[in-house]
Amino acid sequence: MNFTRFGAVALSALLAMPAAADITIAHVYGKTGPFEAYAKQSHVGLMMGLEYATGGTMEIDGEKIVVIEKDTQLKPDIGRALLEEAYGDDAVDLAVGPVSSGVALAMLPVAEEYEKILIVEPAVADSITGANWNRYIFRTSRNSSQDAIANAVALGGEGVSVATLAQDYAFGRDGVAAFEEALAGTGAALVHKEFVPTDTTDFTAAAERIFNAMKDVDGEKKLFIIWAGGGNPMSKINAMEPARFGIDIATGGNILAALKAYKELPGMEGATYYYYEIPQNPVNDWLVTEHFARYDSPPDFFTAGGMSAGIAVVEAIKAAGSTETEELIAAMEGMSWETPKGTMTFRAEDHQALQSMYHFKIKVDDTVEWGIPELVRELTIDDMPIPVRN
């Protein structure tokens, strides 16, 4: 699309009060708390996705899009109550969010109770489109299995021994479980698992347990870290010199602020959901150009995810010709649409968006303040057999 910026239009749509004919969307997400940076990116991306998919009008078939923001504060009980409020008192047509997997799991039954669509973005725990799923849930973000399989492909191999460090909640435990299963198929061995509280800042004890478990293991050794939010375990553990035990640190992609720590580990490999220079397609070209123009910075990890969700909303309503739930479900099951990452497809069986991931190797450039995830190869939908929900 070759159209100029429509930021003022998007802002007016956000601030307007819903009218009878408006299409109303609730963005229920953790605006405050340790994932605030993720939330901000997600909301910017959502609004840019709605703008892009409507050609800047913020309308679908003449009906104005109105977005209502609600802050979960990263608390499951608040997330549940706010989604009830959105579906009930606000009578929104559908909802998007949240940031945290724990909050998402509390919100899923609300969508089923009210029989309204919840597009999950960017929470990633497998159980969201797995054991706790219901037919009103669609997810545009990747899930833990997609992260895990992509990283297993990037890191695994015959004779490789791996330990994991993750946060002790749904995101971390689902991620490690999926990674362990995927890693087995590569010939590598998972020799130690370490889970710590989400707010951990001192990793000394955990690192010592990992080092003791791996120091006498032969062959290539890697510590794979699954982490969200603050704490900076990678830098802190790297400062403890794991290399003296022959251990290389590995992790997946992250937001640009977190990538600053990656500069300490040139050549580190992993797999990422998004880095703005990797995908080559018209949607990402627009996102990168517009984001630089508006914010004087590149779009980040969760900006791309939010945009994917915004485009999905518009394409689903266009395809359904309606905002009625059953018509939306019929249109969205199996729906493919274009995103900053290329084509995504909602799998009909569990409504998980299938999508590419990217095997990277960190390159250091002194003129760039973060470690650059340089593409090794794109891992397509066909490269990753993502398990269907139980």
Write up this protein.
- The chain is of the alpha/beta class and 390 residues long.
- It folds into 2 domains: 7-142 and 278-354, Rossmann fold (3-Layer(aba) Sandwich), CATH 3.40.50; 146-272 and 357-383, Response regulator (Rossmann fold), CATH 3.40.50.
- Helix content is 37%, strand content 22%.
- The chain contains 12 helices and 16 strands.
- It has helices spanning 7-15, 36-53, 76-88, 101-114, 144-155, 170-184, 204-214, 233-238, 256-259, 282-295, 301-320, 325-332, and strands spanning 23-29, 59-60, 63-71, 94-96, 117-120, 137-139, 160-167, 189-196, 220-226, 247-251, 269-272, 336-339, 342-346, 353-354, 357-363, 372-379.
- The strands form 4 sheets. It has a 6-stranded mixed beta sheet with strand order 2-3-1-4-5-6, with helices on both faces.
- Strand 15 and strand 16 (372-379) form a beta hairpin.
- The radius of gyration is 21 Å and the shape is globular.
- The protein starts with 6 loop residues before the first helix and ends in an 11-residue tail after the last strand.
- Keywords: Amino-acid transport, Signal, Transport.
- Residues 23-363 form the Leucine-binding protein domain.
